[in-house]
Amino acid sequence: MAIATVNPATGETLQTFEPLSDEAVEERIARAAAAFDSYRLTTPQQRAVWLRAAADVLDADAKSVAELMTTEMGKTLASAQAEVGKCAKALRYYAEHGEQMLQPQPADAQAVGAVEAYVVHQPLGVVLAVMPWNFPLWQVMRFAAPALMAGNVGLLKHASNVPQTALYLEELFRKAGFPDDVFQTLLIGSGAVERVLRDDRVVAATLTGSNAAGQAVATVAGDALKKTVLELGGSDPFIVMPSADLDRAAEVAVTARCQNNGQSCIAAKRFFVHADVAEEFTRLFAEKMAALTVGDPMDEGTKVGPLATESGREDVERYMADAVEKGATVVTGGKRVDRPGWFYEPTLVTEVTPEMGIWSEEVFGPVAALHTVADLDEAIRLANEHVYGLGSNLWSEDQGERLRFIRDIQSGMAFVNGMTTSYPELPFGGVKQSGYGRELTEVGMYEFCNAKTVWIGPPSSQQGEGDTAAAASE
């Protein structure tokens, strides 16, 4: 894929970029490594000042940055504005709480025969971030805010269709006052990632993206014995039981499926509805899906914009054709919108079976697949049969059902009477083929820290022979 800004609402190529040469990449890695040598010695208090400044810059740039994201990948302007606000919130969250997160954590010194014992979390070094286009600011900020607060240095390889957003992120941290080269954007293709990751000066990597991309990065990192955090695909279940508020559940289901024009790893994609309420829920769901306004993402009234790429829409059409051919029923939607750009109708499909690709694969578009179940046990069993385990949703007022869902669903996140989303205050990540590791809160910060054990013994004059013998036996 060329490194270019292509407006998905029109199909027009607005700007193209030359990828960095090997020599330029080498120079940037060298600069990042040199920056880490001094940046790691800055205090958490100083880093917090820079993070707050970055949030202020984002606030000032909110309108232009939101318009840039909408132009590059097609999310509605309202969604883009909310994304900018969420990023500013994350920056301020780590500015406020990061210093406390990085305080030494005391251990039981007496139990280990020490005068003092504790754990310190120290930065690892230069971290490569390989990020997708669907939340072009937020995906990066989930990594950047905690990593920079911890004292790490970042190299960003962003998706090739959001180059201007990628360049803005480098500018953002520079304008906020961070030292030179602490955060750099690499305009490179996917084929250049392995060379960067294998460089000895790059100590770890984080990737959000497809399973194929995750496998490629994990393979290289494993061969080089480097730490990785992977957030990969998702096909989140959305389970509706008879005790649920059906109207509210249907309303949230539409948002959960069509957020970001249906292009979200944590979007609800598979809907398991109890037979007792399936007919009513399907009616409500279909009505609300059909009422969504599809159009120019810059327009205030638009609820669903275009898919980000032409190939993405072709993938959705392929899944739909396969499902219909194998017996699925299209309740609403089901085809592209007749206008320039890569638009697709919000779609609800029922009578979905395991033979269809839409059952077992992630559909990255506003297409919901609904299946009727006899009880919660069946819903959980079907949900867990999938290779992914990112988020999950249950709608129920029954406490027993809630507890069973939380206990038995195989996912990194479980949301009851709400849709899966991300917060700086909560860990974010999945299990199974949805990846490993966590982002956000202190857990995400510690992913790229060395949890260093510190043991301080008594003066030599106070140590007996027994202490020496005990230590030698370990």
From TrEMBL:
Single Gene Ontology MF annotation? aldehyde dehydrogenase [NAD(P)+] activity
Domain Aldehyde dehydrogenase intervals: 3-454
Keyword set, alphabetical order = NADP, Oxidoreductase
Q: What residue range is the signal peptide?
A: none
Family indicated by similarity: Belongs to the aldehyde dehydrogenase family.
Name under which the protein is recorded? Aldehyde Dehydrogenase
